[in-house]
Design goal:
This protein is an alpha+beta fold and 409 residues long. It has 10 helices and 9 strands. It has helices at 38-54, 147-164, 188-191, 222-230, 249-258, 305-313, 340-349, 357-370, 380-387, 392-407; strands at residues 97-104, 112-121, 127-136, 206-209, 234-238, 265-269, 275-280, 330-336, 377-378. The protein has a 9-stranded mixed sheet, sandwiched between helices. The longest helix is centred in the middle third of the chain and has 18 residues, at 147-164. It is globular and about 50 Å long. 48% of the residues are buried.
Length: 409
């Protein structure tokens, strides 16, 4: 069932004398956030369990990839058929706007950092939006609890994006957080004092998060927290494997060695027999940017000329071709409202390098902002045209402008 604004949340913890040790002094930009108390970690754990119960593992989106996932990844189950329109025909379009979010911090440490949201056109890869904001996080990095450090910044970015493309906040006051799930713990967004953003609808088909989804000790990584808080389709793409259900890097290496040479990914099946995600190994490592490397220009596309031409013509290119394996895969898992059968081929289609282009660009721009080289892109006309069901010519014009800028230095 399609839910364009499927927000779910949990209520804040009730105030009581016993909750005094949940309070933390505010973080300052120059100092790292204080270490969370055992009581706060317990509250975070309860919040993650509530989030895990709210995650939608099946496809709950108005789009579908134009090729079957088994064409690239035979171990994936087939996705369900698309929903039907009132006249009984299948309603199916490809994804058009794919986002990436990243939060970066200076090597010197502290609570101050930069959060960046990018939106790329699919399938051309043309960058249509990038915005970076300065943030001061209120939680330290604690393994397994990244969401409580970074999700409030991502929710703020999504709200800024909604404002930039002209989506007004809801006129009426939202219902109390978690009204349908009384007695729960605060979500990652609520813990950071950040309300959910307005519904983005066709202005963002899916958000790729630089962190885990259900591939997490409590089944609720950062991608799940963002998706449930914002009602947004999300996918987790992590660079490090979390030890869940007996999974380990050695086990992944063994599975990769045993797989067919043409396999671009291996399933991450835990000791319980549950499919937790996939290790994607099919991207090309060459050309990967690091923190001090060049910043992608506004409108830069990592796509091939054929994909850009297809975007201008309003057609869809063939599925991506697996490339030589990476020594270090990325780990893909369900975030919210996107099945693994859809998430994995989608990630493969936007991976010209090890890291998916939307996340890689967000990382490059956030690190550039830390160096004082802020990049801002808002191709409002192209975004509106694509969200309206077209936009091929507008996207091609953005790409052409980028090429001209590149040719003139």
């Amino acid at each position: 069932m399609l839910r364009p604004d499927a927000r779910q949340s949990a209520p804040p913890l009730p105030a009581s004398p016993d909750d005094a040790d949940l309070a933390r002094p505010p973080a300052t930009a120059g100092a790292p956030p204080p270490t969370p108390s055992p009581a706060l970690l317990s509250a975070w754990t309860a919040a993650q369990r509530a989030t895990a119960e709210a995650v939608v593992h099946a496809d709950d989106v108005p789009w579908a990839l134009p090729y079957p996932p088994q064409q690239l990844f035979p171990f994936l189950p087939p996705p369900p058929p698309p929903p039907l329109s009132p006249d009984g025909h299948g309603v199916q379009r490809p994804p058009c706007l794919v986002g990436g979010a990243d939060v970066s911090f200076p090597a010197s440490g502290g609570a101050a950092g930069v959060a960046t949201l990018t939106i790329h056109h699919w399938p051309s890869g043309v960058l249509l939006y990038s915005r970076s904001v300065d943030v001061v996080v209120t939680a330290p990095y604690v393994p397994g609890f990244l969401a409580f450090r970074e999700v409030p910044s991502v929710l703020a970015l999504l709200a800024a994006y909604a404002a930039d493309v002209g989506i007004a906040p809801a006129g009426a006051d939202p219902p109390p957080a978690g009204a349908a799930n009384a007695g729960g713990a605060p979500t990652a967004g609520e813990a950071g004092g950040c309300p959910p953003p307005p519904a983005l609808g066709p202005y963002l088909d899916v958000l790729l998060c630089d962190g885990n989804g259900v591939l997490h000790p409590r089944g609720a990584g950062m991608a799940c927290a963002v998706g449930v808080a914002a009602g947004l389709p999300t996918v987790g793409v992590a660079k490090q494997l979390v030890g869940v259900d007996g999974l380990s890097r050695d086990a992944v290496a063994t599975a990769a060695a045993a797989a067919d040479d043409a396999a671009a990914a291996v399933p991450l099946v835990g000791a319980s027999g549950v499919l937790r995600g996939a290790a994607y190994m099919g991207a090309v490592a060459a050309g990967r940017r690091r923190g001090g490397g060049p910043v992608p220009a506004p409108g830069e596309t990592p796509a091939t000329a054929a994909a850009a031409a297809a975007a201008a013509a309003g057609t869809v290119p063939p599925p991506p071709t697996p490339h030589p394996r990476l020594a270090r895969p990325v780990y893909v898992s369900v975030g919210h409202r996107v099945s693994l059968a859809t998430a994995l081929p989608l990630v493969a289609s936007v991976c010209p390098t090890r890291v998916p282009a939307p996340i890689r660009t967000a990382d490059a721009h956030s690190r550039a902002a830390l160096r004082g080289e802020r990049v801002t892109v808002c191709e409002a006309a192209a975004l509106a045209a694509v969200a309206g069901g077209g936009g091929g010519l507008e996207v091609a014009a953005v790409a052409a402008r980028a090429r001209r800028r590149g040719s003139t230095g």
